From TrEMBL:
InterPro entries: HARBI1_dom (IPR027806). Its cofactor is a divalent metal cation. PANTHER family: SPINDLE AND KINETOCHORE ASSOCIATED COMPLEX SUBUNIT 3 (PTHR23080:SF144), THAP DOMAIN PROTEIN (PTHR23080). One of its GO terms (molecular function) is metal ion binding. The lineage of its organism: Eukaryota, Metazoa, Ecdysozoa, Arthropoda, Hexapoda. This is DDE Tnp4 domain-containing protein.
Amino acid sequence: MYIGISKECYFLIELLHRHTNINREHILLCLKKIRLNSTFSELEDNFGISLSYASKLFLRNLPIISSFLKPFIVNLDKNLIKRNLPIAFRHNYHNVSCIIDCLEIDIQKPSKALHQALTWSEYKKGNTVKYLISCTPNGLVNYVSQGFGGRASDVTIVENCNFLDGLQQGTCILADRGFKHLEQILHEKGIKLLRPPSVNAGAKLSKTEVRQTKIIASLRIHIERVIRRVREFHMLKQHSVINTNICRVLDHVIIIACALINLQDSLIK
């Protein structure tokens, strides 16, 4: 509830302290800030330190905690993924190795006009930072990109992050219609893109296409559930606007949140 770590995994705090030499209370301060989006005034009262010191501790320690937790976001071998496939994937979609989608985080309007333009999201009608998130069919986060301005399209993000470098030939990616322009690039790398059939304006889908759309939507639900878990960290909630000063460590916040949800109960019961 308070730090995003279950009782069974609470030993991580001790491990973090031992490997990073960060005070245990300071680790808890950072995790509580991410989980509950507590103001620095609240943290000042909770931990008996000054407001400016609480802010300094958060910004200084977050990259260190992030580098310790990053190994929990593991890019698994496709054969290992296939051995642990959920039943829904096993018949027609046994080649799917990952499901991808983009996550947008609202941020404060930047002071510079160039940054305002780069982070403006037409979809959200506000300034955002965008991340590509990939999970395995059983809901384990196996990749998260660095942040891109909200102006960047889903395809641009995939092209400019190192996601494709970690994929093996013959991999099959599940995505929504927004990634359709990625097909050619993936084909050249020997990777298959599986997505719902495109719909032309005024045209109707055939019965087969409707059925396929429903099946793919039911399988893509796992990435939506992963994103919902990420949003349970209140700093990353919908309409929880990130302060300009914290934007520089937002990549680390996302990595910590994704690593911690990989330690939670499995999405597939």
